[in-house]
Design brief:
270 residues, Rossmann fold, 7-stranded mixed β-sheet, 42% helix, globular
Length: 270
């Protein structure tokens, strides 16, 4: 729904013509029922735009020849982004989600080679077997986990990072990351909208350094706060931070570790 809202703006920073169809009436209803649902559209829209940019960079500059989108949900990047026709793009999610999405997009043509795989990523053996197979399908792979990590425990996040690093040719990883104080805000804001707001779990104090122990190095950090200004999608309260907390903004501009809220690109060198 957030992608649909942005796409329908005259000054949209990306266009997803499939978003409203994929969200359907159920998605619209969920958005209206969420506490402050529309108010918190901006960070999700910024995240979408940033991942778009990092995918374009990885494919165009870094020679990525295959992309694996884990917990892909209702993402439509293979259809809406300009991608090389020989790029191999794999979407992984629960079988029921894969079936629903395939039905909704039946008759549409992706811009690259698209494959969908129904798998429960919580099944350790199935996950590792899948990564072993997918990691050998190209020479320079990019993994995307958009909106996934925050639902994992630290142990689960570490296991996923380790399993991805063990795959032969997963070289890049794009994911989002939240600072602990943001996690608390999410729990407090949406506690009335979820049966259990404790579903939000992962916000490492050490920021992207969490992934270093599993073989992943931070290559880029795109701060949600700073990038929202560049993209002209700031929070209505952003001016307060600029006026009263300039030190926080300076830290965000130079941050390489510690609590982070934004989108990160991780690399793994052989």
């Amino acid at each position: 729904m957030y992608r649909a809202m942005e796409s329908e703006r005259p000054d949209a920073i990306f266009h997803d013509p499939f978003a409203r169809r994929l969200a359907g009436a159920r998605g619209a209803d969920i958005l209206e029922r969420m506490p402050r649902g529309r108010t918190f559209a901006w960070p999700m829209i910024v995240r979408t735009a940033l991942i778009d940019e990092l995918v374009t960079q990885a494919v165009g500059r870094d020679g990525v020849d295959f992309v694996v989108n884990l917990a892909a949900g209702l993402d439509a990047r293979p259809y809406r982004m300009e991608l090389p026709p020989d790029l191999h793009w794999v979407e992984v999610d629960y079988p029921a989600t894969i079936e629903e999405k395939a039905a909704a997009l039946a008759g549409e043509t992706p811009h690259c080679r698209l494959e969908r795989i129904g798998t429960d990523l919580a099944d350790t053996d199935a996950r590792r077997s899948l990564f072993e197979r997918l990691g050998a399908m190209g020479t320079r792979g990019l993994v995307i986990t958009e909106g996934l990590m925050v639902y994992l425990t630290s142990e689960q996040a570490g296991e996923l990072a380790r399993d991805l690093a063990a795959a032969a040719n997963f070289r890049f990883w794009v994911t989002d990351i939240a600072a602990p104080w943001v996690l608390k805000l999410m729990k407090r804001t949406w506690s009335r909208g979820f049966a259990d707001a404790s579903v939000f779990r992962f916000a490492p104090e050490e920021g992207a350094e969490f992934y270093a122990r599993f073989g992943w190095r931070l290559a880029q950090y795109r701060s949600t706060f700073l990038e929202s200004r560049r993209l002209k999608r700031e929070s209505p309260m952003a001016w307060i931070w600029r006026v009263f907390y300039p030190r926080v903004i300076r830290q965000e501009a130079t941050r390489r570790s510690g609590p982070m809220t934004g989108t990160i690109l991780l690399t793994r060198e052989r």
